[in-house]
Design brief:
This protein is mostly beta strands. Helices cover about 0% and strands about 45% of the residues.
Length: about 100
């Protein structure tokens, strides 16, 4: 079960964007996520009239490794790890390690 999913609010733990909070836009692969407003780079783009793209310098969010982000816990207002908790009936849910509350309530 994935501990970080699309739509989760995460905090960046390391790198030049350390401390920034953002929402996960998508999982790029098993080890990388795309976070809104994090790891933003400037890209020089050529114009492409076939696609209707204008040329120039654009801001682009690049993927970041999943080990460099942690879930944001709204109860403690800090970054927190997630674990898997099995409920009665065998249903598996994500829960914060600090206080044991469910992530997706």
């Amino acid at each position: 079960m994935n501990k970080i999913k699309k739509g989760d609010e995460v905090v960046v733990l390391t790198g030049r964007d350390k401390g920034k909070r953002g929402t996960v836009l998508r999982r790029v692969d098993a080890q990388h996520v795309l976070v809104e407003g994090v790891n933003r780079v400037k890209k020089h783009q050529r114009p492409n009239p076939m696609k209707g793209q204008t040329g120039g310098i654009i801001d682009l969010d690049k993927p970041i490794h999943i080990s460099n982000v942690a879930l944001f816990n709204p109860a403690t207002k800090k970054a927190d790890r997630a674990g898997i908790k099995v409920l009665e009936g065998g249903r598996r849910v994500r829960a914060f390690k600090a206080n044991g509350e469910q992530v997706d309530v």
